Amino acid sequence: MKKMPLFYKYLISYLALLIIPLLLIGLLVYQHYVAILKDEITSNHQRMLEQIQDSFDSKIKEMNKISAEIASKPELTPYQLKQNMYNAVKAKNLFLTYTSANIFIKEVFLYIKDQPYVYSGSSTYPTALFIDTFYRYENWSFEQFTKDMSELDRPVLRHSEPIASARLTDDRVLTYLVPLPLNAASPYGSVMFVIEEKTVRKMLQGLLDNSDGNTVILDEKGNRVVSLRDEAYLEQSGFHRQAERLPIGTSTGMLDGKEYAFSKVRSDDFNWTYITMLPIEQFMQRVGEVKSRALLSLGMVLVIGCALIYAMLHFNYHPLRRFLLFTGKQWGESYRNLNEVLHAVHKITEEKQMLGRALNDSRIAVHEHMLLALMTGRVTDPEPFLEKAGEAGIRFTKSGLFVVRLAVRYMENLPRQQQIGILDGMEAMMRDRFECYRVEGLEGPIVNFICAVGPEDGEWPREMKELHGAIRERYGIDVTVGAGNRRQDIRQLGKSFIEASTALDFRLLKGYNEVILYADIADQTNLGCNYPRQDIETMEVLIRQGDTESLTKVVRGILSFIESSAMPLHMVRCICYDMINCIVKETYRLKGTLETADESYPDVFSLTKFDTIQELADVIEVMCGQLCADIVRSQSESKSGGQKQEMLDYIQANYDDQQFSVQNMADHFAISASYLKRQFKEQTGKTITDFLNHYRMEQAKHLLRTTDMKLKDIVPRIGYFDVPSFIRKFKQAFKVTPGDYRKLYETKEHRSE
């Protein structure tokens, strides 16, 4: 050992630390837990068999109880049934309740001595036809049936036996016969319960699901009542003797040349015996699996542990040195001791904390920005927005969104700390009742919430009123709540904000300490007002077509309708919101964004501040005109770029022609003069005449600067007829005469020299 390398000394030590615990687990713990598992499987099997016994006994007791109920029914007495067949029809519904309420029982029949009929919930049968035609027992003739039913003085369970009946879904049944009344010295009749064998087998199946075992119920004489499977060994006399010798509980034994695990219980109420038998390999299958997995796990732990120990020793033999080198490399320094490394780690921790705080502040800002965008109607594409909102911690699990605004009276007069406490408390109380988020960043002292409810939450107005009362009681403040309508589309949440703002404005009429729902005030003030939904949809079509003229007519028509209808302002705001939202969607579709440097559209917050219809109308008309122009421009840019250059080239080539005219230019391009004017204006922003005059003046300036030509020679060269007209236009354009311009330019040249 002294000569052995240190690496192998460590390796042997670590392997000993691994193998010794594994041996202890294998020798001590393993056998202990396997024994516990065996006992647990045995007890579970026994308990499940006892549950089956209890369940079957309870079914028998339940049928006895039904028999007692039938005996107590006046309608089912021999006297009533004997009067006429109508009483039998009435009794039919009573039997139906027993079969429909108990899926264990397939049919219930009533037999009255000395009466020629058998009664049930489905029909009334002549006795002879009942046993010979409708329910043909293979081993029960009509004569024997009549004898058994007449002599019945105690409950009897007929074992599983074949039967032929179109009214049953199984060809084997168990029949339970109960005299009426039960325990009477002279019964006047009996009740016959028909139970399909598959129903009982389904009950027995749960214990031996997916196995080759069997479950048998034996009566007090040891005869088989029913079994899960019809095996050959059940008919052998040796099985019955072996069943009698089996102890109560779980045991093992041989059956039909194969070892089985037997579980046996006995019914105290009926003295019946319940036995399950399962091949021993299946009974102990789980134990075998646990043994195999445990041994496999121990082996894998041993192999993997040895490999990991070797690898860790091989690669981390000098861990401290490697750590120092790594730390020094990260910081560009050389560390020689642990104190220096600890100092570097401390710096890393501080920077990480600072980065975490910055990231948290950024997340909070994004969270508030997205809520504000949602509140003010700046959402055009719901799916990307909801995805980003989820990353910022904004998730709505319910589909119905609405805005709630709370105005606290004299809130601004309270101390700042008290204001924060009230706001945080109201937010906590709101979240206790609703799925909601508080929205900050809006002007004014009003507290804003976006709430979500589901279709099933029809009582949210009542809960809002209860919440309002709780806030007032807790803080002793005057507060008014305004709530908008629910919206399924988040793009319409801005409309709910307008509605909530309108509802809150009604506090001027209703006073403080009220919960005002927009739906309530809309019902009171909007009677007789039609909503121009079709006209707004027409707007969207015209915007896409770029038809400014028709669009302006539609917009003015909507505004005229508003003015003529004497509509309330809050309804006007909602209509204008839909109109602006229509424009916004098309703007986003055209440009891919709503943010521009020189223009913006009014959000829902600004909509609530417009006081006149004309203010709203002016904004909408300007937006419509601008958007139509953008659409037309975007549609024509691709095909008009070359045409624009051709028109400019023509003017530059013919500007000196004193006979230049728009018509000649239109003839050159084989188009109408009106179409040429419109195309030139749209593509250059100027009329043909303005551009021609501008270009001629620029050429005149060039000649004045670079030549000594006289003015009378320059004028015809640039396409003008007479000198006075040219001088007047030149001075109008540049505020100086052509002569002064030439002198001014010459003076600048002399100064530069």
Mean pLDDT rating: 78
CATH fold-type name of the largest domain: Alpha-Beta Plaits
**Strands of the largest sheet, in order across it?**
3-2-1-7-6-5-4
The CATH homologous superfamily of the largest domain is called Reverse transcriptase/Diguanylate cyclase domain
CATH architecture of the largest domain: 2-Layer Sandwich
Tell me the number of helical segments per DSSP (H or I, 4 or more residues long).
28
Describe the structure.
- The protein is of the alpha+beta class and 753 residues long.
- It is 60% helix and 14% strand.
- The protein is built from 28 helices and 17 strands.
- The strands form three sheets. The chain has a seven-stranded antiparallel sheet.
- A hairpin with an 8-residue loop joins strand 6 (172-180) and strand 7.
- Helix 13 packs antiparallel against helix 14 (460-475).
- The N and C termini lie far apart (102 Å).
